[in-house]
Design a protein that fits this description.
alpha/beta
């Protein structure tokens, strides 16, 4: 009965959220188009298509800062005086693979948006220290310190969700709102990776770009959604030359699979937390463990969506994220 009651509660929360979205003009502090502030701080404002916005993100100047034993590459956008939010990517993802529609929505909601690349990925150097979720977390704290940010909202995607959880637990005073997208609490309770994904990952005869093409149908689950959207590449920024070497990809996977996880310490996460996942994603069953463990957390599952939820249903994803951030804008 407890589990049933929880599920009913999550369903009711979802209904309330979507009702709120229908009156978004009363909730969201959207910028007025044509205002000086928006024109200055929103680099995507003049672009219309997804492809043009993605190109702007790709060509945006990146900056580097020394953190621990590495140089971390990052990009910052939005008004420098606005509230910060840091987005942490998943395994084998560069910062330019974030959906520019999400970045633009956050900027328009008066956020200073920081995206960066984990060690060894893209323009960030690999350093000499062992790859681990704890080390990635230390790197993230180092970036926050280097940017002189006292406290920031955090959004973690997949492996980035592992880092975000660890960050919230080890540095609770530095994290405001916490958004966990397509992730789990890891450790022994984590569901094993599907064998077909492992087979593709371990295929040394394939390039990283070829692997991404093979993984796409699972990334954009369910199969019927993928079949109905054969042009997914027009709104998913897959690089022509994949910038992540195979050995770095494997180190990230090893870091994720050897992480002890947070399943036994979830109750210590005190930040307002949104858990959002596609119903057809591999972490979907684990999302309930997160929701049951983190006090007062919100759980939102989106149907007909996989690991690429933010690309499959960008409007719904962005509105849910902004609703959560607006309600918890303390």
């Amino acid at each position: 009965m407890i589990l049933k009651d929880k599920l009913v509660s999550y369903f009711i929360v979802g209904l309330v959220l979507f009702n709120l979205l229908t009156i978004s003009n009363l909730i969201f502090p959207f910028q007025v188009y044509g205002s000086t502030k928006l024109e200055i701080s929103n680099p995507f404002g003049a672009a219309i298509s997804f492809e043009s916005k993605a190109a702007i993100l790709d060509n945006m100047t990146s900056h580097n800062v020394t953190v621990n034993d590495i140089s971390v590459a990052y990009k910052q956008m939005g008004n420098p005086e606005d509230k910060p939010i840091i987005l942490i990517t998943g395994a084998s993802s560069t910062m330019d693979m974030w959906n520019p529609l999400l970045l633009e929505a956050l900027i328009e909601a008066n956020y200073k948006v920081i995206i960066f690349e984990n060690r060894g990925v893209g323009e960030s150097t690999a350093g000499t220290k062992e790859f681990s979720i704890d080390q990635f977390t230390n790197d993230t704290v180092g970036l926050i310190n280097a940017l002189k940010i006292n406290k920031t909202d955090v959004l973690g995607w997949s492996m980035g969700g592992f880092i975000a959880q660890q960050l919230a637990l080890t540095n609770p005073d530095r994290v405001g709102n916490l958004i966990l997208y397509a992730t789990s609490c890891g450790g022994l309770n984590d569901r094993p990776t599907p064998p077909e994904i492992i087979a593709i990952d371990k295929n040394t005869s394939m390039s990283q770009s070829e692997k991404m093409q093979k993984l796409a149908p699972m990334f954009f689950a369910p199969a019927r959604w993928f079949e109905d959207h054969p042009n997914y590449q027009t709104y998913f920024p897959i690089p022509v030359e994949y910038p992540i070497p195979q050995q770095i990809h494997q180190k990230q996977l090893n870091a994720s699979t050897t992480w002890e996880g947070t399943c036994s310490t979830l109750s210590n996460i005190t930040q307002p937390t949104l858990i959002i996942v596609g119903n057809n994603d591999d972490p979907a069953p684990d999302s309930l463990t997160l929701a049951e463990g983190i006090p007062g957390s919100w759980l939102i599952r989106i149907g007909d969506a996989g690991h690429a939820l933010m690309y499959q249903h960008p409007d719904e994803f962005n509105k849910l994220v902004l609703t959560f951030l607006t309600i918890n804008k303390g």
